[in-house]
Design goal:
This protein is of the alpha/beta class and 301 residues long. The chain has 9 helices and 12 strands. β4, α5 and β5 form a beta-alpha-beta unit.
Length: 301
């Protein structure tokens, strides 16, 4: 109300001085919203509701189909996200990026929900934790382990670019997105408008490129050619987050990712000079993950 009173007095003063009231309104609105709002049309403001860009990025997001199950899980030690997807009708499930220490938790959840774990997939050969796929194969013997053909890791099934994995009537498509490692893949479930980006694209960041065949220029091309070309409303789920974020979108990362909004030369310069410490788990995790995480797994009686 106070604003309206001040606004009316300003409008009356403007009219007395011969200034068009509509221009005053337009300038006032523009000055307070110029950093957040893009007009959706060239019509005058009194004819059109101006929509903030931040709202536009979210208003077209898809909802999951009624027969699609999604659950995001986390390992606090490695900050790794694990994703359980399933067809609610057939009960077939897939698990993305399981962690060794959480394999019993995941197996218990799958059994409680009445699902059958068909595939345990890894987005890449991890260096910061040992995959849970090997242990899950003991806990849930029907499980098929899956990883990229280019990973150099053992698995029951190796995926090539654009190959699909089906669970019930649903399917995910594997896109090769190397750069963090040669075998990095992004898993896309197109009907649900979601993608699992591994370490290739993190929330407002990306995986490091200074070990395990990493290459900054290749990673930049993977993100821009394979992930940023997905529809902007697609929800993205990374393999890790260290700040408490759970998901992002293509639109957000294209606008606000501080690394990948740079041009390629600036990005390469940045990534080549991060001077990050040597990964604590790499010497244990990489050899284990080459063997599908089959090192030091307790035998189930």
């Amino acid at each position: 109300m106070r604003f309206l009173s001040v606004f009316r007095r300003a409008s009356a003063t403007a009219a007395a001085l011969g200034f068009p009231c509509q221009k005053l309104v337009s300038r006032s609105i523009a000055s307070s919203t110029v950093r957040c709002i893009k007009p959706t049309t060239t019509r005058s403001l009194h004819q059109t509701v101006v929509i903030p860009q931040c709202v536009k990025m979210l208003d077209q997001r898809k909802t999951f189909s009624a027969d699609f199950f999604f659950r995001q899980l986390m390992d606090e030690q490695s900050h790794t996200y694990t994703y359980l997807l399933a067809d609610i009708t057939t009960k077939e499930a897939v698990l993305i990026d399981p962690v060794l220490e959480q394999a019993k938790r995941d197996a218990k959840l799958i059994e409680e929900l009445g699902f059958t774990l068909k595939y345990a997939l890894n987005t890449h050969m991890h260096a910061d934790h040992i995959t849970g796929t090997g242990y899950l194969k003991q806990l849930l013997p029907s499980t098929v382990s899956v990883i990229s053909l280019n990973s150099g890791a053992k698995a029951d099934k190796h995926l090539a670019d654009n190959e699909t994995v089906k669970f019930g009537r649903h399917e995910l498509r594997a896109l090769c997105t190397p750069g963090h490692t040669n075998g990095c893949m992004t898993f896309v479930v197109e009907e649900q408008g979601i993608a699992f980006t591994g370490d290739t694209l993190l929330i407002r960041g990306c995986g490091r490129t200074d070990f395990q065949e990493g290459d900054a220029r290749t990673l930049y091309r993977s993100v821009h050619d394979r992930i940023f070309t997905l529809p902007e409303n697609y929800r993205l789920f990374p393999a890790h987050d260290y700040k408490g974020n759970m998901e992002t979108t293509v639109a957000e990362e294209k606008r606000y990712n501080p690394r990948l909004t740079k041009d390629v030369e600036a990005f390469v310069e940045l990534m080549n000079n991060l001077n990050l410490p040597y990964p604590k788990m790499i010497d244990k995790a990489v050899p284990a993950n080459r063997e599908c995480g089959l090192f030091d797994i307790p035998k189930e009686n």
